[in-house]
Amino acid sequence: MGVDGRLRAVVSLAQAMAAACAPRDSVRAAARGARVAMDGSFAAISAWERERGSLRVLVNEGERRAGEEEFPEDESYPVHDFPEITEFLHERWAGGGGPHAWVESAGGGRPGRRGEALRRRGRGTCVVAPIVLSGRAWGELYVARDEGLPDFDDDDAEFATVLAAVVAAGLAQNERLEEARRLAFTDPLTGLANRRAVDMRLDEALEEHRRAGAVVSLVVCDLNGLKRVNDTLGHAMGDRLLERFGSVLSLCGAMLPGALVARLGGDEFCLVSVGPPAGEVVRVTEELCLRAAELELGEGVACGVASTGDPIGLVKSSRRLFRLADAAQYKAKAARSPKPVVAGRDTAVMRLADAAQEGVGERRRFRGRA
Question: Could you tell me which of 267, 265, 264, 276 has the C-alpha nearest to residue 318?
Answer without folding.
Answer: 264
